[in-house]
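STRUCTURE:
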C-alpha cells in the first residue's frame, strides 16, 4: 500500500513537472520571438545609420536566439559587406525607404567627378559615400592630383570610423597610402600628399616609410627657404 502511494506521488510529481515545463515553453516562445524581432529591428536601424559593428551584434543576438533564422544570418553577412562597400546597401535602403542616404549613394555612383561635393561628404563624416565617386575620378576620370588626394583622405577618415570592423581598418589605410603615393607621383612639389603619407605611415608603425617621406618634406622646406 505504501509502495502504491509512493508510485502515485511520483507519477503526480512527474505530471506536474511536465505540465510546468509545457507552460514554460508556451510562455517562452512568444518572449523569444519578441527578442528576436527586437534585435532584428534595432540592427536594421543601426545599419541604416552606418553603425555596422553595433548592427552586427544585434543580428548575432537574433541568430543565437534562433539559429535557423535566415533573415538574421543574411543581415549579419550583409552588414560586413556593406562596411566594405556601401553600394551593397542599396537594396536594403530601398526596402527601408531611407531616401536621404540612398539618394547620396546613387548620386555618388553616377560616374561624374564632383570633387566639391565629395569634399563636403568627407567633412560631414560621409567619406564612405565619397569613396564611390572618388574611385571613379581617380581611376577612370581625370586622374588628377586632387582626385587621388581626396580618395586617400576619404579612405583614411573611414579607417578611423568607430563603427566599422577592426579587421577592415588596415586595408583602408593601405588604400589611403596607395592613393597619396599616386597623388605625389603627379605633383611631387605639393606637400599635402607627403604630410598625409607621414601621418598615415605613423599610424601603421612603418618607421622606414615615415623617415623616407619626412626627409622628402624636409628637402622641400629647405628649397623654399631664401
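SEQUENCE:
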Amino acid at each position: 500500500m505504501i509502495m502504491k502511494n509512493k508510485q502515485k506521488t511520483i507519477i503526480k510529481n512527474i505530471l506536474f513537472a511536465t505540465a510546468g515545463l509545457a507552460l514554460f515553453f508556451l510562455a517562452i516562445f512568444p518572449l523569444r520571438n519578441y527578442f528576436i524581432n527586437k534585435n532584428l529591428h534595432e540592427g536594421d536601424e543601426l545599419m541604416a545609420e552606418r553603425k555596422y559593428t553595433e548592427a552586427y551584434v544585434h543580428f548575432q543576438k537574433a541568430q543565437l536566439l534562433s539559429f535557423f533564422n535566415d533573415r538574421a544570418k543574411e543581415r549579419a553577412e550583409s552588414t560586413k559587406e556593406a562596411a566594405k562597400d556601401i553600394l551593397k546597401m542599396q537594396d536594403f535602403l530601398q526596402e527601408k525607404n531611407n531616401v536621404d542616404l540612398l539618394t547620396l549613394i546613387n548620386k555618388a555612383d553616377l560616374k561624374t567627378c564632383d570633387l566639391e561635393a565629395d569634399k563636403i561628404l568627407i567633412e560631414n563624416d560621409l567619406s564612405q559615400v565619397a569613396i564611390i565617386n572618388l574611385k571613379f575620378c581617380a581611376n577612370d576620370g581625370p586622374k588628377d592630383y586632387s582626385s587621388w588626394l581626396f580618395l586617400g583622405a576619404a579612405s583614411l577618415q573611414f579607417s578611423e570610423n568607430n563603427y566599422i570592423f577592426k579587421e577592415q581598418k588596415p586595408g583602408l589605410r593601405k588604400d589611403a597610402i596607395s592613393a597619396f603615393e599616386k597623388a605625389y607621383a603627379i605633383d611631387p612639389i605639393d606637400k599635402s600628399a607627403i604630410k598625409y603619407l607621414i601621418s598615415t605611415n605613423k599610424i601603421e608603425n612603418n618607421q622606414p616609410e615615415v623617415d623616407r617621406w619626412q626627409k622628402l618634406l624636409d628637402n622641400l622646406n629647405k628649397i623654399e627657404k631664401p
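REMARK: The chain has two domains: 2-84, 111-224.
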